[in-house]
Amino acid sequence: MFQKKQLIPMAICYDFDGTLSPGNMQEYGLIKKLGISPADFWKESNRFAQKHKMDGILAYMKMVIEQSKAHHLPFRRQDFQAYGKTVQLYAGVEKWFKQISAYALKKGIQLDHYIISSGMKEMIEGTKIASCFKEIFASSFLYDENGVAVWPAVALNYTTKTQFLFRINKGCPDITDDKSINRFIPLSKRALPFEQMIYIGDGETDIPCMRMVKEMGGYSIAVYKDNVSKKTADRLVYDKRVNMAALADYSKGKQIDLFVRAVIDKIKADHSLEEEILKGK
Fold first, then answer.
1. How far is residue 242 from each of residues 46, 153, 167, 232, measured CA to CA in Å?
2. Using H for helix, E for strand and C for coil, what is the string for the chain?
3. How many other CB atoms are there within 10 angstroms of residue 110's CB atom?
4. Phi-psi region for residue 147, left (φ > 0), alpha (ψ -120 to 50) or beta?
């Protein structure tokens, strides 16, 4: 009886702000609603974090809650999602996921997409591309009995992001599952090898993820939007923390598209070679 050939698993993990979208997502309506300029919001958030020796992500999330209370503007999940609908995306992003996944499938590869972001999960859920991701790992709020955001539930900073790469690698996406993520699993038995993973980010806050994926045999891309951010991306290439730097344009035929297609081709070729080696044993 004919047995259907199993697809090769692959994942692309993305930061969000500055990677798929220009700027910080909170600046698309949310901060303006609080009656404060983005510059003043981040200045106050950073000052608060330094004063209390606290994590910067927790500081900005607390700022959102405190400012909402001060202005009598309770934020619910649907409010954050509504702001997410206004978030702008880089060129080619909306068509990117379907196009590149279709290319991978033709090569016998099941390509899944993941978000790993310090931004707000609720806002990402409201964007046009939310349904393209298998999982969205991002900072999120705890809600009271009235559905109002009252406390940070999850906060992802530049180092805690790496946890989610291991969750994808080991096949344990449930953030409350501490046992599986810490259980020893031989590299050959893991759900998705790092060699079949790409991480795409835009700057210094993505360095731990970029470097880890690259050093584990996968691929990392630093994207930039202008000449200023290009210098940061080029430096990451020079320091061997990423494989390449590319303009944040996901259109077909552009640098990101060509590189990812080349990685897909290599993953397919590596598996075909491994099959031939096994046949000869």
1. 28, 31, 21, 11
2. CCCCCCCEEEEEEECCECCCECCCHHHCCHHHHCCCCHHHHHHHHHHHHHHHCCCHHHHHHHHHHHHHHHCCCCCEHHHHHHHHCCCCCCCCHHHHHHHHHHHHHHCCEEEEEEEEEEEEHHHHHCCCCHHHCCEEEEEEEEECCCCEEEEEEECCCCCCHHHHHHHHHHCCCCCCCHHHHHCCCCHHHCCCCHHHEEEEECCHHHHHHHHHHHHCCCEEEEEECCHHHHHHHHHHHHCCCCCEEEECCCCCCCHHHHHHHHHHHHHHHHHHHHHHHHHHC
3. 14
4. left
As a whole number of angstroms, the distance between CA 189 and CA 169 comes to 10
**Residues 280, 76: Cα–Cα separation, whole Å:** 60
- Which domains, ranges and CATH numbers included, belong to the chain? 8-22+89-280 (3.40.50.1000)
Phi, psi of 125 (to 5 degrees): -60, -25
248 contacts 90 by C-beta, under 8 angstroms: yes
> In the sheet that 219-224 helps form, which strands lie side by side, from edge to edge?
149-154, 135-143, 109-120, 8-14, 197-201, 219-224, 244-247
Residues in the chain: 281
Q: How confident is the model at residue 201 (pLDDT cuts 50, 70, 90)?
A: very high
- Kindly state the tokens that stand for 195: 């060699």
Whole-model pTM over 0.90:
yes
Q: Average the pLDDT over 208-232 and give the result.
A: 95
Q: What is the pLDDT of residue 32?
A: 86
- Taking only the tens place, the pLDDT of each residue in 82-123 is 999 999 999 999 999 999 999 999 999 999 999 999 999 999
Report the alpha-carbon distance of residue 18 to residue 11 in Å, rounded.
Answer: 20
Distance CA 65, CA 83 (A): 16
